[in-house]
Amino acid sequence: MTLTRRRFLTISAAFSAVPATAKAHSWQGRAFGADVSLTIRGPRSDAAAAMTHARKLIAEVEQLFSLYDPTSSLSQLNAKGVLRLPTARFLELMQAADTAFRLTDGLFDPTVQPLWQALAQDRDTAAAVASIGWKKLRFDPAQITLGPAQALTFNGIAQGFATDLVADALTARGLTNTLVNIGEYRANGGRWTVGIADPEHGILGHRTLTKGAIATSSPAASPIRAQGHILHANAQPRWSTVTVEASSATLADSLSTAMVLATREQIDVMKARADIARVALVDFNGDLFTV
Fold first, then answer.
1. pLDDT recorded at residue 192
2. In the Cβ-directed half-sphere of 122, how many Cα atoms lie within 13 Å?
3. Using an 8 Å Cβ cutoff, are 178 and 211 in contact?
4. I want to staple 136 with a disulfide (CB 3.0 to 4.6 A). Which of 85, 93, 147, 159 is the partner?
5. Domain of residue 110, residue span
6. Which CATH number covers residue 96?
7. What is the pLDDT of residue 201?
8. How far is 287 from 144, CA to CA, in rounded Å?
9. Has residue 101 been placed in a domain?
10. Given a cut of 60, is residue 17 above it in pLDDT?
């Protein structure tokens, strides 16, 4: 079996410990082209209603940010270069992406989508690389305007964003023992053990979550031609896998993506800036380092 990024995250979650005193109710489905799951410990009636609401939220986020759906808001923005009167949720993710861009000194840059397309179609990449640059676009409540030949991908942050929306919605319903996995994990209550996995070297360690989020990025999990899927105009992957623990899945997702491209010194700076809990780095030899 090929271990895709989503697949090895799901396998890692199978290490979650469920106390005998708490009944766990789970749902598994698909979102953003990947497997997702929710686990709630509590009364079945509460869990069922919460899961229905969570699935609706996931569908709403996909309708905004999916690259697989040509009718999504993101697909429309990429096709036209302009999105007028973006929703509050779309603007919220744009602002989160802008924050991640600044925290990482530009290593997190959602404008790499043309480069991904050029590589996937085996075309020359010069024009695509020239279009990259988050600072070339403009956004405000009235309109989002891309730079010339630009297109966005939120694959390095949208899953974390959706994870936070669902986790917050479950908490608002009074559920205090939940684990949300929409590509990234966020826990609230309980003890959830999640494995740190690398697509080449397997499970290398474990983390116990009681509250907070964890996200993993690995360029080899979804290769494009001869290289990984984490792209940048002038940076290459330096780590086989990066796992970030943070207060939000949005932050953990975006920073784990950027840190794949970062030196150890840059990672130290990012960690301090973002005030994140812990970073696990797996080098290409399979050695695990914790920051």
1. 87
2. 2
3. no
4. 147
5. 67-145
6. 1.10.3980.10
7. 86
8. 42
9. yes
10. no
What is the mean pLDDT of the segment spanning 59-69?
92
pTM: 0.88
Q: Does residue 184 lie within any of the structural domains? A: no
Q: What is the DSSP string of the chain?
A: ----HHHHHHHHHTT----TTS-EEEEEEEETTEEEEEEEES-HHHHHHHHHHHHHHHHHHHHHH-SS-TTSHHHHHHHHSEEES--HHHHHHHHHHHHHHHHTTTSS-GGGHHHHHHHHTT---HHHHHH--GGG-EEETTEEEPPTT-----TTTHHHHHHHHHHHHHHHTT--SEEEESSSEEEEEEEEEEEEEETTTEEEEEEEEEEEEEEEE-GGGS-BTTB-S---SS-----SEEEEEESSHHHHHHHHHHHTT--HHHHHHHHHHHT-SEEEEE-TT--EEE-
Number of domains in the chain: 1
Q: Does 21 reside within a domain? A: no
Say if residues 269 and 237 touch (Cβ distance below 8 Å).
no
Residues contacting residue 154 through CB under 8 Å, at least 6 positions apart:
65, 74, 93, 97, 110, 161
